[in-house]
Structure formats: C-alpha cells, structure tokens
C-alpha cells in the first residue's frame, strides 16, 4: 500500500481549542483551574486588563511546539526539503510501507 493511499483513510484532522477571554481579576481568582485546563485540555485564555487583550495563557508544551515551528520556518534548507517532499508526494513519488521497512532494516544492517 503506497503511503499516499494510506494517509487519506484518516481524513482531515481538526484540533479544537477553546479560546476564552477573561478579565485579569477573574483570572487571578481562577488561576489554578485555568492552569489545569490549559495543561490538560490545551485551552487558551486571553486575559484582558482594562478591557484590552493583554496576555495569553497557553501550555508550556504548546509554547515549545510553536517555537520549534518558528525555528523550522526560519530554516531555508528545511523549508526547501518540505516543499520538495510535497512536490514528490503530489507527483506520486512515494514509497510503500514495505519499502520503507526494508530500507530501515538494510540501514540497521539486518537482512531485508
């Protein structure tokens, strides 16, 4: 089975993130609850001060993921590799799962 035929079985992926805007006084009173929701459910909170959006509360894992994405997007070589892989995929220049496994075994020095 070619990878290009394998992945569409899963359909589109959607990540639903709750974005709630709350005033800083309410955030202070609910900080433990908000922190739990952010860490556990990946909710986002925009915290307002004097009615204006001032800061966001997001999980450390999500922040680190965004930083890694920004690093990747600022790497011209990595972007070129991503573009090339998209072009290869669109052109059907892919490998089957069995071909990938065989190549990994070959690289590990096994028979395959």
Can you walk me through this structure?
The protein has about 110 residues and is of the alpha+beta class. The chain has a domain at about 15-60: YefM-like fold (3-Layer(aba) Sandwich). Helices cover about 55% and strands about 15% of the residues. The chain contains six helices and three strands. A three-stranded mixed β-sheet has the order 1-2-3. The protein is elongated, with a radius of gyration of 22 Å.
Describe the secondary-structure layout.
Elements: H1 3-6, E1 19-23, H2 24-29, H3 31-41, E2 44-49, E3 52-57, H4 60-73, H5 76-90, H6 97-107
Parallel strand pairs: 1-2
Antiparallel strand pairs: 2-3
Tell me about the largest β-sheet.
Answer: 3 strands, mixed
Estimated structural class: alpha+beta
Strand order of the largest sheet: 1-2-3
Q: Outline the low-pLDDT stretches.
A: 1-7
Features:
112 residues; alpha+beta; YefM-like fold; three-stranded mixed beta sheet; 6 helices; 3 strands; 54% helix; elongated
